[in-house]
Design a protein that fits this description.
10 helices, alpha/beta, about 290 residues, globular
Amino acid sequence: MARLRIDLHTHSTASDGTDSPAGLVTAAAAAGVDVLAITDHDTTAGWAEAAAALPGGMSLVRGAELSCISPTGRDERDVAVHLLGYLFDPEHPAIVAEQSRLRAERVERLQRMVEKMAADGYPVDVETVFGLLPPGASAGRPHLARALVVAGVVESVNEAFATLLYNGSPYYVPKADTPIHTAIEMVRAAGGVTVFAHPLARKRGRVVEPSMIVELAAAGLTGVEVDHPDHSAEDRDLLRGLAADAGLVATGSSDYHGTNKTTPIAAETTNEDALGALVAGATGAEVLTG
């Protein structure tokens, strides 16, 4: 029997991807993906369009990538992290309220970053940057990065992040993210399951200690993203062993963003047993099949 191709972490224009939700499904189908998760940042706005575009035989796992803050497990300030929530009830009051708050935070943060860059002479302005957002999209730094590409300041979104928009840059503005324990509890209350996204993506900045992931497992975390383009081979081995010891589901995903990143869809995948374990733990929403 052929092995299913499963990608559980992708983005559309509902947040910071470049494919529409329908286009994301089409791209996944063309890449031979059998099971796709749509996981836009702090929003479920792309769910309906993605579901309507499902071709026969392809399945859709509906989710979101939640912006969180977490202790590091060291004696230092908390660090920004991401939590993948899957198959939760999108109408659960806590989910609706927190995603609305986070999207508002994203708007204010992006506006402040644009204003700081404009004050230093960069050819960007609030109206132009926000004009790049599709209606209802969750605002993010990639939208400013694309504006910098259009203005000729940088040649690519990756270059914009590496030189101007990285965490700690003069133009970086933090946002008030959800405490990760609160986010785990919120998704569980909405009938969903949670996976710690790219926890050891060290090139992005500070990361948590492995002991922190073990602590989160005891607090209700369902899984950990092991195979991710930003994880080294050594860290994948570490996370795989940690998942086995802590009873966490080990997943793999591309973190596809369309042309905003060079990683193709399904560059990393999840095995069928892991998907089954996630689905078995969720009651808030069903996996859809075309």
